[in-house]
Design goal:
Elements: E1 2-7, H1 13-25, E2 29-34, H2 44-51, E3 55-59, E4 63-65, H3 72-79, E5 82-88, H4 90-97, H5 104-111, E6 115-120, H6 124-128, H7 130-141, E7 145-146, E8 150-153, E9 159-163, H8 167-178, E10 189-194, E11 199-200, E12 206-207, H9 214-225, E13 229-234, E14 245-248, H10 252-262, E15 268-271, E16 278-280, E17 299-301, H11 305-311, E18 318-325, H12 329-339, E19 344-349, E20 361-367, E21 370-371, E22 375-378, H13 380-396
Parallel strand pairs: 1-2, 1-5, 2-3, 5-6, 6-7, 10-13, 10-15, 13-14, 15-18, 18-19
Antiparallel strand pairs: 3-4, 8-9, 11-12, 16-17, 19-20, 20-21, 20-22
Helix pairs in contact: 1-2, 1-8, 3-5, 4-7, 9-13
Length: 400
Amino acid sequence: MRILLGITGGIAAYKAADLARLLTHQGHQVRSILTEAGARFITPLTLTSLTGGPCYGANPDQGEWRANPSIEHIELARWADLVAVVPATANIIGKAANGLASDLLSTVLLATRAQVLWAPAMNTGMWEHPAVQANLARLRTFGHAVVDPGEGVLACGEEGSGKLADLLTIAEAIQFHGTPKLSSLIGRRVLITAGPTREDLDPVRTLTNRSTGAMGIELARAFRDAGAKVQLVLGGDLPAPWGLETIRVRSAQQMLEACKAHWPQADGLVAAAAVADQRPESPSTQKVKKVEGTEMLSLVRTPDILAQLSSQRRPGQWVIGFAAESEDHLVHAMAKLQKKSLDAVLVNDIQDGQAFGAQANTLIPVTDQGPQPALGPLPKDQLAQAVVQWWAQRLGAGPV
């Protein structure tokens, strides 16, 4: 993605350098525009060094410097896939909301047809002022996106709203708003399960598995970025992605109840969670003490979430399951597909611990037409995007 990063005059401008580096490391092309006030907090050399791209606008030694002032603002406006203003002051927000163009950044904002994203940062009183909120509301009517600031101790010493949003949150918002949408997924309601479930043995110990939930979370991001309306039912400890309705669960029963509440309204299900297949028959209310000799643990089956949801689907709903197998991968995946009446199963090889955590992974889609070409090996974020592309093409081809 080609990202034009506008930096205005606030103390949070120093954080824009970290954002520029983060976006560059994610593979985006980043160019920067500094306002005259922004150049008092950060220099063009810093931004150019971090992004490898040019920095336009203000120069602390020359005021506003424009290499090609006659057409520069039009070239930048056309170049960008997305314009992000981070941090955004009340001044630049007011200018853009009212069509004013008195410097390079405000001129580009007026000229561009790209998606514009704002990450405001200012004093609490300024943030809450009716004029600022009215200007932001007007920008939203233009189709602009706003990442609201967080709360905390501000540079002025006050505490309240106005703190620049977390940089990872801003980066996720940029990814979402700048990613082209897939026509077969726009507006589709997709229910996704992710993460491990945990079954309590006693107040201290649990029965669980090695899944972190990373793959399911990346799938939720990829479906979100493609235009789907995602509801995520999430176990484990990983943070939930930005911009998603997320229901946190612990046990298989809790996951089933959350899914049953949302499944009737969904268009499709991606069951990526690693659900514990057993739970203790009688969990202890007190910590179990060590004893001499053999100890016995009686287990019972947890509910089969995927089978239950598949059996309750209405016409038009689709279901994708996952299979983590250590042997006879395709045989087991085909059996799961048929037994649970699924539309597809994504199978991976878990021998020697591969596929867990932050490792790269390979998934083989299996449908009623048999195994499909493998997706991967790829890092999990790219693999999730490949899965979404593959499934969107199948949806676009007609009924599943």
